[in-house]
């Protein structure tokens, strides 16, 4: 077994992944992510971006290939150890916002901090700061159902940044936003991550985030390729963006 390079916070080698129904998702992907780097993973729908992020973050168990986090072999961890790793070191943003309906916005944002042992008071202060930064400070006391989709997604982004994770996995984080909001939200996310030294792995079906990233990796049919033709962002917006009208 070859040890990963010292300056890579994440490192994957010859990653293969097949879904339970036999659908192939990754076919020998290798990559390294350096500490503090913003890495864009781009590729068309179904190219394996989500599966790659799930494998790197320990959400999906790796059966063939290796994933290392800070020289720790994630591929050898059991489900409990991977869950602890995700709770303590990683954050995740889904393309569609998902919040706890019974909690208000600041409580949702503070939750990951409290799960990591931060006091409620300190977690609330941090949550409110991040909500203001994401332009949703004024809805801090509302419940998720009182927000529009774009606001809920901004809350999810604040929640992911609030604990200052070592790595933030962002799977199409701007998908539910109007096109005019996307660049601003992606810029806020990447700027905030850089100022806090957070490593970001950001998946996108269009090339828009590449301009904000330090480096771009392109996937096609579960493999890394050098270039791929991607349709303009307007054609890749999909269902989430269509359902968002304020
Ligand atoms: N739960 C699943 N069961 C079976 N096949 C799946 C599952 N999830 C994804 N796949 C398949 O695995 C391949 C990679 O999917 P993945 O979601 O990782 O790609 P993606 O690039 O993130 O696409 P998208 O932008 O549509 O989310 C595709 O062929 C997809 O149909």
TrEMBL record:
Alphabetized GO MF terms:
ATP binding; ATP hydrolysis activity; transmembrane transporter activity
Which Gene3D superfamilies does the protein's record reference? Answer: P-loop containing nucleotide triphosphate hydrolases
The record's section on PROSITE patterns has: ABC_TRANSPORTER_2 (PS50893)
Q: Which residues form a coiled coil?
A: none
- Tell me yes or no: is ATP-binding among this UniProt entry's keywords: yes
Q: Name one GO cellular component term.
A: plasma membrane
- Report keywords, A-Z: ATP-binding, Nucleotide-binding
Q: Name the SUPFAM superfamilies on file.
A: P-loop containing nucleoside triphosphate hydrolases (SSF52540)
Q: Where are the transmembrane segments?
A: none
Q: Check the record and name the InterPro entries matching this protein.
A: AAA+_ATPase, ABC_transporter-like_ATP-bd, ABC_transpr_LolD-like, P-loop_NTPase
ABC transporter domain ranges (all copies): 10-246
Q: Which family does it belong to?
A: Belongs to the ABC transporter superfamily.
This protein's name: ABC transporter ATP-binding protein
């Amino acid at each position: 077994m070859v040890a990963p390079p010292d300056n890579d916070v994440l490192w994957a080698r010859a990653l293969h992944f097949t879904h339970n129904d036999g659908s192939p998702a990754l076919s020998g992907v290798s990559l390294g992510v350096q500490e503090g780097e913003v890495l864009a993973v781009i590729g068309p729908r179904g190219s394996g971006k989500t599966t790659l992020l799930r494998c790197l973050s320990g959400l999906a168990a790796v059966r063939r290939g290796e994933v290392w986090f800070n020289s720790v072999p994630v591929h050898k961890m059991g489900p409990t150890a991977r869950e602890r790793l995700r709770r303590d070191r990683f954050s995740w943003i889904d393309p569609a916002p998902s919040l706890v309906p019974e909690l208000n916005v600041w409580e949702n944002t503070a939750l990951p901090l409290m799960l990591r042992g931060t006091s409620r008071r300190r977690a609330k202060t941090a949550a409110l700061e991040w909500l203001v930064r994401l332009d949703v400070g004024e809805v801090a006391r509302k419940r998720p159902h009182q927000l529009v989709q774009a606001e809920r997604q901004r809350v999810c982004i604040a929640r992911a940044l609030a604990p200052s994770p070592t790595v933030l996995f962002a799977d199409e984080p701007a998908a539910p936003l109007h096109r005019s909001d996307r660049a601003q939200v992606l810029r806020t996310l990447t700027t905030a991550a850089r100022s806090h030294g957070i490593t970001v792995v950001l998946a996108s079906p269009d090339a828009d985030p590449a301009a904000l990233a330090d480096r771009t990796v392109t996937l096609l049919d579960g493999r890394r390729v050098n270039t791929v033709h991607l349709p303009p962002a307007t054609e890749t917006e999909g269902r989430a963006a269509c359902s968002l009208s304020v």
